[in-house]
Structures are given as C-alpha cells and as structure tokens.
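Lecture notes, structural biology module. Today: joint structure prediction for complexes of two components.
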Amino acid sequence: MKREIYVGRVGIGGNHPVSIQSMTTTDTRDYSSTLAQIKRLYIAGCEIVRVAVPDQESVISLKTIVSESPLPIIADIHFNPDLALKSIKAGIDGIRINPGNISSISKLSKIIKTASQHNIPIRIGVNSGSIEKKYQKSGKTRAEMMVDSVMDKIKFFEDSGFCNIKISLKSSDVKETIKAYRMIDNLCDYPLHLGITEAGTIFSGTIKSSIGIGSLLADGIGNTIRVSLTDDPVKEIRVAEEILKVLGLKEKGIEIISCPTCARVSVDLINIVKKFEERLSKIKTDKNIKIAIMGCEVNGPGEAKDADIGIAFSKSKAYIFKKGKLIDKLNPENSLEKLINMVIES
Amino acid sequence: MKREIYVGRVGIGGNHPVSIQSMTTTDTRDYSSTLAQIKRLYIAGCEIVRVAVPDQESVISLKTIVSESPLPIIADIHFNPDLALKSIKAGIDGIRINPGNISSISKLSKIIKTASQHNIPIRIGVNSGSIEKKYQKSGKTRAEMMVDSVMDKIKFFEDSGFCNIKISLKSSDVKETIKAYRMIDNLCDYPLHLGITEAGTIFSGTIKSSIGIGSLLADGIGNTIRVSLTDDPVKEIRVAEEILKVLGLKEKGIEIISCPTCARVSVDLINIVKKFEERLSKIKTDKNIKIAIMGCEVNGPGEAKDADIGIAFSKSKAYIFKKGKLIDKLNPENSLEKLINMVIES
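The predicted structure, tokenised, for the full assembly:
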C-alpha cells in the first residue's frame, strides 16, 4: 500500500479510491474564465484541478481562484522557483514541479520548506521530454533514465525531511510509461499520479490513455490519474471516469450532482450539500443512486429530472423530483430531511 | 514464440505482425450487402473477416462471399456441427467454434477431421458467458474456469492430431480477460486471438478494448485482435489500428504528438492541431513520420526534438525542429504551411 497524502480534502494513496484530475486550459490570469472552467470540471466529476502558473500576474489571479474554487487547486510550476513560493502562499492545495528544471538547489530547498510550513504535498513530475543530460546514459532505456532521475529527486526530498510527495513519470510513449511506472512502483511507497503526456486528440488520446493508465490500474498501480487530451478538459474527465468504471475502481453508489452555485442561487447551497453529504455518509446502500441538488430554476429542474432523486431550489420553494417526476414542493428548510428519507426508502 | 498458423494468406503467430480482424453485421444470407461491408472493412485496413453462419441459407451465400471476398473469411459457428462441415466445404479460410456448445463428440471429431483435410485452422473460442457447468467450481475465479475449459479442449484437439488452432478467452470483464490470457499464454504455444466481448458503444467499447487488448499487447501477449463495438465495424478497424500504432506494432505512417494545452499556451493549439490533421489526411506517405506540435517551452523543445519534425510555440515564435535540430524560427501564422511542406518533402 502507498503512503497517504492529501490534496485539500482529497486523499491519495492509502485506502483512498483512485482520484481524477484535470488541468485548466484557460489563461490563469483570467480568473473568471479559469473558475468557470473549474466549475465545469467539478460538475463533470473532476476531483482535483491543476492550474499552470507561468508568471506573476497568474499568481495574483491564483488567490481568487483558490478562494472560489469548488475543487482543490494544484499549481503547476516550471523553471521559476519564486512563482512556486508565491503560489504556496496564495493558498494552493498542492504543487507540481519538475525539480530537474529548477536549477538552484537552495531555491528548491526553499520550496520544500515552504510547502512543509503550509502542509501541502508536492508532485515530483519527471517527463520523458525533459530528462536532464546527466541521466541520459547509453545502454539505459528512457524508462530507466526517468526512474533514475526521479529516484535522485526523491532522495533529495527525503534528505530534506519532506515526504508529503507523489510521483509521476510521464512519457508520450505508452510502453515506456508502463515500464517506468512498474519500476517506480517497486522502488518506493509514494502514491503515483498516472498519465500519458501529449496523448493527442480525443481519438488517439483516449486510446493511448486507456492503454497506458488502464493497464497500470489493472495491476493495482496508480493512485490518481489524469487523462490528457488536446481538447476541452471536460472530455478528459469522461474518459478518466470510464477507465475507472471499466476496471471496477469507481463505485457508483450514491452520486451527488450539484451545481457550483452562482448569483441566481437564493439558498446557501454549498452548506446544504455539505450537510447532505455528511448525513449520507452514514447511510449504507448497495444501490447506485444519482442525486441532483441544484440551486436555481435554470438548469435545476433539467438536472434534477435526469437524476434518481432531484431537488431544485427557487427563491422560496424546493421542488422535489423522483425519477424525473415532480413529486413535492416544500419550504427549503424541510427539504434536507425529505431527501434523506427518499434515499433511505429507495 | 507462438506457433505459426495461416488464415488464407495471413500468417498468425511466429514472426508475423499482429493482424486485425472484424466481423460482419449484415445478414449473411444477403451476400451482396455482406460483400459490400467486407470491402469497406478491407479498405479500412481489416485483414481477416468473420461471418456468422447461423443457418443453411447462410452456407449457400457463404460460397459466393468466399469466392468474391478480398479478405480471408472465417465462419463463426455455434451449436450446429453440420453448418461447420458445410462451411468448411464452402471454401472458408478458417472456422471459429466454441467446442463447449457442440454436444456430440463424434461430430466435433468430424469437424476437426474435415478442417484437417481442407488445411484450415480452427479457433477455439471460450467466452465467460458460456462456460460449461462442469468447469464452474467454487474456489476458482472465472478466469481460471475459462482456462480450465479451454485447456481440456486443446487436449482433445491435440489427441485428435490437430494443432492448427488459435485460442480466445473473451470476457466482458476487462480484468478477467487480462488474467485469463496471461494464464493461457504461459500454458500453451498456440497463437492467441484477443478481444473483449460485449464491449459496448464506441465510447466505452473503445476504452474497454484499449485497456484489455492494449495491456496484453504491451506485454507481448496476443497475435491477432478484434475490437468489438456496437457500431459500424469499420470503426472497429480504426480503433484496432490505433491500438497497434500506439504500441509500435503497426507501421505508423504519420503520427502526431500534441500537448493537452494549458495556461502557458499562447496560440490556439487545439485548432492548429485539428487543421494540421485535416491537411495531413490528404497526404499519402509510406514513411513513418513522428510530428510533435507543442504549445510552450516546458516540454515543447524536448518532445519536438525527439520527433522527426517538431514545432514548439513560445509567446511570439514558432520554433521548427527537424530530427532534433532547430532549423527555423517563424511567426506562428506561417508555421502550419512550413510543417506541411516538411512532411511532403520528407
């Protein structure tokens, strides 16, 4: 079993289910577009989202993104250690760096120390496209070079007293990726983030990711996954979910669909959903039940109808749906109890 | 290495490349529709085609299909041994039976003898959905039951002096399929036909087949494959070809590697790649050309260098690589034309 780390509220490794990640494709400096995309990813089933932070302006935007995101945020940093430090201070839930492209050892140590102070994990991500020269030895396969490179980095982190890490070894070559992950899986107990880089378009990217991520997961290797597609990242989530379902790694059980909330919502939906989740966590069921909790009358009734049990709030009422049919209108304050009873009875 | 068999002109096992199969979805009695579909499959890259033969009328039609088909024909027979005998006499190139559903031992012997006289191979195909009761023992996994069942059948064929066989062990459960094939691969040297049954729609079927077939092929298991989709069988060929390409098992032609884009990307990479794919689809080449189209300076230059032709965008420039060497710096808007010309010239 792998060690357990947390990216925000999402546990990775240990006994945690394999989680689904994606990455925003918007300009991070444009926080409203970025947040809109994060909300779409959240609704689609994404559990952790990564955001590239290539410059100072992005760091400023990051603060807003972190505070308003429904998902834990990982900052993706390359080359510039100052951006890493500032991102951590902006309140991110995790950071991804490739230590190979941060040239100053003292700066790397500073990043590790700051992550430690803020109690956030670091993903050490080595990609086949950026292996440092010193690991490019003849007689070694590229998978071996990637593993050599990452093992050195792990040692540096451990020597710094920092073990809140996860590892990725991504290659655009699928067989190489499988080999590299099989090797590292035997060599360390840090949770593994799986992915195929530069997988390509929806067609070939789906196939590449399914083979690479899927064959590793089928053998019990991998703790969190990201499907990369040169397309709308929401499509990455659909492919990732299907891979997990195919391998029996995603229990459907009670599935809650809820809107990310916006100006139209007149109830405190985030708290309603939180309370509801809390209550539900105590109910055991073998059934797959899809529950939609929607904040307003725009998408609310549509989503709520599509679910087994649905609730859509208007300004003064809660509309209750069962298998697509409106069955009740209640005061919002009574609706939570009603939903819980419907779940117990179903 | 596995034994070598031949389905018509197509070698399976030995040093032969992994071949692609499909199955017609037309009414076999309607030979003109069936032949039309076989021709579409042939053009798409299918190498062997299977045709269901459920009744006497289909056998009559089969003669015409066999004589006019551009592809070797395998007859798929269940339950009725007489249809098997008549199909062999109709000139088919191979036959697929599940010996478990042919109840008469003497009839099974007759099929084996007739196949031997006509020098055609038999696929012994055991499916998880039709394991005979005697193999359904408690304490065994379903994968083990499938293997037990097929091993008994192999023994019967060998005792009859017939070794011109290939084996399939298909399950709709992907992990079970992987387990069953890994076991049988160790137990015998007959070539293996890979597939996932009831894989489903294009979306989930592509993912299921990619994981199941792909992870076995990645470990060198499997000699011929069939992707099953509830869709036009031509789509099965596209998925099968892509699986083989991803694993380096098929001459690639033009392969595009592209990044999933993120906030670092300053060009509209998704559209650039789409346009490029469109233009490329009109260029015919016998060569294997790997083209990397990368959005930024992080993994961009590394991946672009590793490709035959590469392009990495920065904020204002497109850097063009050929066989790892930077050969040009252009305005991004001129780069597509440059790449197309490089492909044509190479």
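Point to remember: The mean pLDDT of chain A is 90.
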